[in-house]
Design a protein that fits this description.
single chain; Rossmann fold; 7-stranded mixed sheet; 5 helices
């Protein structure tokens, strides 16, 4: 399993990392985003969406559970499972349709959906440091390996 580690100085660096990731993701895949509240999951997601060409507001889908973003023929779905009481609620949301769409799916708090969501291609863990954030990206599929390899190559 390939792993990429990077320290991010601030919100701008986190969003810039998201833009780098968007180029490698190319509008597809399942990405889990883990980290405590305020770690930068939504900021990273905003960068990914901006890198895909989305220019509107990007907010945390904490209350809606999912926010769809359409950019021409491409789409991305941003989930926040933090407020999920029971993973079975995901069936009412129709999560399978989103995850099987072939479009990019970003899932914050994926541990809340265990048993009802497939494994990710990429797991991104964000941590709060005294200054900035840490990002650890771990591959969980051949596509995830390709993404991590691209991130590693981009810093050489």
């Amino acid at each position: 399993m390939r792993v990429f580690v990077q320290q991010l100085a601030d919100e701008l660096a986190t969003e810039a990392m998201g833009r780098r990731l968007s180029l490698l993701l190319n509008g597809r895949g399942i990405v889990y985003l883990r980290g405590e509240l305020g770690a930068g999951k939504t900021t990273l997601s905003r960068g990914i969406l901006r890198g895909m060409g989305y220019m509107g507001a990007v907010k945390s889908p904490t209350f809606t559970l999912v926010e769809p973003y359409e950019m021409g023929e491409r789409a991305a779905y941003h989930f926040d499972l933090y407020r999920l009481e029971d993973p079975e609620e995901l069936e009412y949301l129709g999560i399978d349709e989103y995850l099987e769409s072939g479009h990019l799916c970003l899932l914050e708090w994926p541990e809340k959906g265990v048993g009802h969501i497939p494994p990710s291609d990429l797991l991104i863990e964000l941590g709060v440091l005294a200054e900035g954030r840490s990002l650890v990206a771990s591959a969980n599929s051949a596509f995830g390996e390709q993404i991590c390899r691209g991130l590693i190559e981009s810093v050489k």
